[in-house]
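mind reviewing this stuff:

——
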Amino acid sequence: MSLTDVIDGTRQAVQADRHNAAVSFSVDHALVANTATVVDVRVREHAFIVDEPSALGGTDRAANPVEYALAALGSCQVITYQFWAARLGIPLDTVRVTVDGDLDLHGFFGFDQSTRPGFSDVRVAVELEGPASADVYEQLRRAVDEHCPVLDLFRNQTPVTTTVR
């Protein structure tokens, strides 16, 4: 099934009933027994682990949470570029994205309460290849910036509710 088929099918389903546009995602996490930092993550039928590098007390068996956050942003960018290129009829041969983020450990470790624990700066570098003009790819970039869900998470405050049982 092509992206345009997905776009058209979704448009029809949402036009038939606006509630068809509402989706929810769920991810389960559990600390792996006898470890301090290895987390087992389950998403639908998929599983992966999260860890910390040894310099942060981990075993370096996998990427850490902030690396996965950057990976989520980069992956969402690649997918959103493909989606919007198809939606707008823009020819696109290649999409490459590199995401870099700066984080000050003063915030995470609580060494300085005035330092936020999250990223202080995130940079997204996108490389597009195809036969269209630079102006057309700039139009595509604007569409992606307006519609990329993970970019939205990075740019805007999202309500989060935490409960402990």
In short: The chain has a mean pLDDT of 95. The longest strand covers residues 119-129. The chain is about 40% helix and 20% strand.
